[in-house]
From TrEMBL:
It is a multi-pass membrane protein. This is Mechanosensitive ion channel family protein. Residues 711-789 form the Mechanosensitive ion channel MscS C-terminal domain. It comes from Rouxiella aceris. The chain crosses the membrane at residues 218-238, 259-279, 299-318, 330-355, 367-389, 410-435, 447-470, 491-515, 545-564, 585-604. The keyword Transferase does not apply. Residues 1-31 form the signal peptide. Residues 591-632 form the Mechanosensitive ion channel transmembrane helices 2/3 domain.
């Protein structure tokens, strides 16, 4: 014992172990007031509470999966937020208990090392209980935090689903913009919306004040000034060097105009988008910036890029400063009239799109969301309706002044009409009360117009680039020509081929963008994934054709049909004629490509509608029954047509004879083949007959024609002299080939005379008739000159008997 008291450290440790429970209780009572001590001492059944919270979370998830109405989703969102709040309160109640257990463990200290003074059983049990309690409390707090996070994520998902449901339910009548309920968010806002906007405004204020703290002040000021300079003067500063460098760096041709248009649009996107990026970076570069501020910056940058793209496309296509480099055929007065509309439209998109993004971010009520959607649709529709009216007025003024406006193509006229009609429908939908429909049409109009404008510029740029690259008059073309020993035909063929590949890729990208794109909300990867997922589905039992999918399907069908027609014309008129293929082979390739293309377009259109075609069992069954009873001939002819196009026993341009019909093949269709006779009439022959019957192909394998003439002469002629005369006539004709040489055959000897047959070969069976006609004229002339007559033909004389007297 004396030894123990002589060691102060051991004595203090012993006292701490003995009086630890009393010290912990006293310390907790002193640190907290009487009320707090009572709260901590109050027992909490955390396990049962956590179990109840988890059941509530699972119940909300089940209801969300079945909910389709925006109103029901709003109630579920409130339940999810309440659940997150309850989980947070439970976590806050468990924190003091965890701190109390940790304080007791700190008083006890760590377990003694091996070889040290052993602890009493009471202390060992107390440390074990405290560790168990601490572990349980840690797990419960983590579980409460997980429930809170899950509830918050669920609330975010419910908000997104609610907005998506509002977007897809375009047939929902939400009230006219002339009604009081539409303007209620301005005059009588809801308390939840006010609180949400107040919290959001406070976060913006905090970010603003933090950006001007001493450690961030100079950087913020520099970036704001730089963003202002780039946004206001960047485009003008880069436009002049571009106009100076383009004619000096690029060869003479259309490439200058298309590249200048592309560069103009790119400059607008880079300058205005870069300015927006710098502006948002002022407030989002701090490490502890809130999520709302960060997401607001992302929304602002995306909308700025889209708005800048619209401004750039307007500058590129209208080209008011450089009218001679304007790509489309637009008169100067019309271009000057339209120059303000891209800027005004981009401003509407930026401001109203930002408002809608903030509404979605803070989770405002449906009334506020509808108000933002209605206002954006109204302003865009007014702009889209005024522009065609002003264009028509300017064109009429030009005609009245004796000026000739630009020649408008059919496609331009259709686009002009489509914009006017869609703008009218949007205004009508807003007045009637279909705000979701108006919003859907507005965003589709903006997105489709932007994609088509980009496609127009990029197609012109790609075609002009490859034509300039492979042109025999440019430096690159001359280099390729001499280095690869190519002639002008090969260069022209390469330019056509690469231009077609570029246009095809651009059209595919445009279709992907049209099918999956939305205003500033879809990345290229997400759009690509959407198009890949078009092949998915649940079959007919799960088909849900929503309006957006229907519009996408119509767009896909129209674009696919246009691409096929364009590709068919390109193959038939531009590419294949430059190759060494014969006309029949070219026609077969074009027909086969067209048939396969139509099948793919139909299948992809069904997939776009949400119909998974490879699971349409009822269609397969119906086709099986139809084939068994009445469609077997059609299917047989279809398969025979494919065989004709692939094996090519006959092809377009061949001279064939089948079942007494002889003529030229003009077209091989899916079901039948068109044969043109010598009198220009057409016979339709089913494809199966060309496969199953004997067909004489007079032109297959470069077959030669044989011109044979048989003549009858009297018995007293000199056969050798006549033979020489006939051979001279054949050899003198230009259509008769030298190899094999013409020949005369002694065919027949009879009492009425001798028959001589003269034969010569021509290049094609098609010229036999005309050649024989020319030879008969020539032979008869020579025979008369030589005094040789043909054998006399027998004549029959009808005599009338004399009348009886």
């Amino acid at each position: 014992m004396q030894k123990l008291f002589r060691t102060p450290g051991k004595f203090v440790l012993l006292l701490a172990l003995v009086f630890a429970p009393l010290l912990a209780v006293a310390d907790g009572a002193n640190a907290a007031g009487p009320d707090e001590a009572a709260t901590v001492a109050k027992p909490i059944d955390a396990g049962a509470t956590l179990s109840a919270l988890q059941k509530r979370l699972d119940n909300i998830k089940q209801q969300v999966s079945a909910a389709k109405d925006a109103k029901n989703m709003g109630g579920l969102n409130d339940d999810a937020l309440k659940l997150a709040s309850d989980a947070d309160h439970l976590s806050a109640d468990l924190q003091p208990l965890l701190a109390q257990a940790q304080a007791k463990l700190d008083v006890l200290g760590p377990a003694p090392a091996p070889g040290a003074l052993p602890e009493t059983p009471q202390v060992i049990k107390q440390r074990k209980d405290l560790n168990t309690s601490k572990t349980t409390l840690d797990n419960q707090i983590q579980q409460a935090a997980a429930i809170k996070t899950s509830a918050g994520n669920l609330s975010t998902q419910i908000s997104a689903l609610r907005r998506d449901a509002l977007k897809t339910q375009i047939a929902l009548n939400t009230g006219s913009i002339l009604g009081i309920s539409f303007w209620s968010p301005l005059f009588s806002p809801q308390e939840d919306d006010g609180q949400s906007f107040a919290d959001y405004k406070q976060q913006l204020k905090d970010a603003w004040h933090q950006a001007w703290q001493p450690q961030w002040r100079y950087g913020s000021g520099f970036m704001l000034l730089l963003a202002l300079v780039i946004g206001v003067f960047g485009g003008r500063l880069l436009d002049a060097p571009l106009a100076w460098l383009t004619p000096r760096w690029l060869p003479v041709g259309r490439l200058r105009r298309s590249f200048f248009a592309f560069a103009t649009a790119a400059i607008s996107v880079l300058t205005l988008g870069g300015s927006a990026e710098l502006f948002t970076w002022v407030f989002t570069r701090m490490p502890d910036v809130s999520d709302w501020v960060q997401q607001t910056g992302d929304i602002l940058v995306k909308l700025s890029l889209f708005s800048a793209l619209i401004v750039g496309l307007g500058r590129a296509l209208l080209s008011v400063r450089h009218p001679s480099w304007r790509l489309p055929a637009i008169a100067d007065p019309v271009a000057n009239t339209l120059v303000s509309f891209p800027k005004m439209l981009s401003g509407f998109i930026l401001i109203l799109g930002l408002i809608e993004g903030i509404n979605n971010l803070v989770g405002t009520s449906v009334a506020v969301t509808l108000f933002g959607n209605g206002m954006s649709s109204l302003l865009v529709a007014i702009s889209a309706s005024i522009a065609p009216i002003r264009v028509n007025r300017v064109r009429r003024q030009m005609l009245a002044n004796g000026e000739q406006p630009e020649a408008r193509s059919t496609l331009a006229g259709l686009l002009h009409l489509a914009v006017s009609v869609i703008a009218f429908v949007i205004l009508l939908a807003l007045l009637v009360g279909y705000i979701p429909l108006a919003r859907f049409l507005t965003y589709e109009l903006l997105w489709v117009g932007t994609v088509l404008a980009c496609l127009y510029i990029m197609i012109d740029l790609s075609v002009d680039f490859f034509e300039s690259l492979f042109s025999a008059n440019t430096a690159s073309g001359k280099l390729l020509k001499h280095s690869l020993s190519l002639d002008d035909r090969h260069l022209s063929l390469a330019a056509t081929l690469f231009s077609a590949i570029a246009k095809t890729l651009l059209l595919i990208i445009a279709v992907i963008s049209l099918l999956g794109g939305n205003l500033g909300t879809t990345t290229p990867l997400e759009v690509f994934n959407k198009v890949v997922d078009l092949w998915g589905g649940k079959g007919m039992e799960g088909v849900k054709i929503i309006p957006a999918q229907a519009v996408n399907a119509v767009i896909f069908l129209v674009v696919g049909w246009y691409i096929l027609r364009s590709a068919k014309r390109w193959l038939d008129n531009d590419f294949l004629p430059k190759t060494k293929m014969d006309r029949g082979m070219r026609a077969s390739l074009v027909t086969l490509f067209t048939n396969v293309g139509y099948v793919l377009v139909i299948l992809l259109t069904l997939s776009t509608l949400g119909i998974e075609w490879n699971r349409l069992a009822w269609i397969v069954s119906a086709l099986s029954v139809g084939i068994g009873f009445g469609l077997q001939e059609i299917v047989k002819n279809f398969i025979s047509g494919l065989i004709l196009l692939t094996e090519r026993p006959v092809k377009v341009g061949d001279l064939i004879s089948i079942a007494g019909v002889e003529g030229d093949i003009r077209r091989i269709n899916v079901r039948a083949t068109e044969i043109q006779l010598s009198d220009r009439s057409t016979v339709i022959v089913p494809n199966s007959q060309l496969i199953s019957q004997n067909v004489r192909n007079a032109t297959m394998g470069n077959a030669q024609g044989v011109a044979t003439i048989a003549l009858t002469f009297p018995l007293d002629i000199d056969p050798q002299a006549v033979r020489t005369l006939l051979l001279e006539a054949y050899e003198a004709h230009e259509a008769i080939q030298d190899t094999p040489a013409p020949s005369v055959t002694f065919s027949q000897l009879g009492p009425d005379g001798i028959v001589l047959s003269v034969t010569g070969f021509v290049s094609s069976p098609r010229v036999i008739g005309s050649t024989k006609s020319d030879l008969l004229y020539e032979i008869l002339t020579k025979l008369r000159e030589a005094g040789i007559s043909l054998g006399r033909t027998q004549t029959m004389v009808w005599a009338t008997p004399p009348a009886e007297s």
